[in-house]
């Protein structure tokens, strides 16, 4: 549903990184039998019923028995229970495999580390449910789109090659990622809520580093400021007409009663988040929607009518009203996105290279070119300067790891004042964008000083304070939560105390 929302998820966590909220744990002696085949009996299934998953009095209240698995029918095996939520052997193995594929290091004792990470995630998810934390479909879809675009790029830009490699269709991959991203973002939002009121004063920052030896002061990574000038490749008129004709055909079929709007949305909409809901976006305020989409949606009055074709920054839509409540609206939509051909990409890159050559020849400055030629709304009025927005500050300085990977790769070898050749990247909204960039400033890695790096040092102290707060919260939550695990896990040395209870 990011296809119509203005809001964006700047940095979406992968499933593994979302769960990696505890440090590497070491085992006191190896865990035997951890890699058994996934055999079990129907008795290992968890029966859910309690509304509150904490402080379960005993296994009978939970309706769960954790017995030694037997080689019966081939079903999954419950190895942990946290509250009334099971952790399956398949959950652990899936996390292990995904982590391995993504280069994630679980430490020397993954058999202990992984289930603890999953268990901690379940504690945050449970609290998020109690606190009514929500994640919009737009956020989920945008995260899934970013991950899918990354997968496709890694497969040489070919969806067909990706499907062949993964032995799954694009649709199946999206479906699998959906719930994983939803849970990872719920965990992220819950963690943010728990520490949102924490702050540190300048005096606390100075006190923290006052007696620290010079060679123990943190190293500040290389920091850069980058300006960009973008050109977004445009679809051909023929491609736009193809999209519009398809949407007109959809409207005609709906008006004739041949098929419902919801069915067509489920089958054809390229907003995969809302497509699963028959195109329904849920009750939403005008300010959360793309302006063109909002104008058309809020003008609808008859639920039986279908809007005219609407062009937004995400593509082309038709919309159907479901209901209106005050200043919020619920509607369905179908989104189709024109395909961008390689000739359009080549044309945009060629024009950018020509602009870059003129800048290097001194005909005009990079900043002047941005004002006249760039189509990036976020940077156009600021000389193309990228903004690095976090929860605590908004700055133009980036550590290299915080830049979009495509930009970081180009900037890494540039000199201050240099203008790059044209290259392409995929934006947060899943669009192909062509750009050139200029390295405005660069400060190489160095030991922190209060005078020059106060904000970075403040962030270090603040992060430590937040980490300690979350650590204390998890330990308290464990004490109030029913936890049960198979015997072989009880010898693990976990990061958090309290997992192994008297049972």
UniProtKB/TrEMBL annotation:
Kindly give the Gene3D superfamilies that the UniProt entry links to this protein.
Answer: 3.10.50.40, Porin chaperone SurA, peptide-binding domain
Q: Does the keyword Transmembrane apply?
A: no
**One short Pfam family name for this protein?**
Rotamase
| UniProt cross-references to InterPro entries, sorted A to Z | OMP_Chaperone_SurA, PPIase_dom_sf, PPIase_PpiC, PPIase_PpiC_CS, Trigger_fact/SurA_dom_sf
Residues of the signal peptide: 1-20
Q: Where is the PpiC domain?
A: 221-323, 326-430
Q: Which domain of life is it from?
A: Bacteria
Tell me where the transmembrane regions lie: none
- Any one Gene Ontology molecular-function term assigned to this protein's record: peptidyl-prolyl cis-trans isomerase activity
**Entry keyword set:** Isomerase, Rotamase, Signal
The protein in question is named: Peptidylprolyl isomerase
Q: Which organism is it from?
A: Prevotella lacticifex
The root-end lineage is:
Bacteria, Pseudomonadati, Bacteroidota, Bacteroidia, Bacteroidales
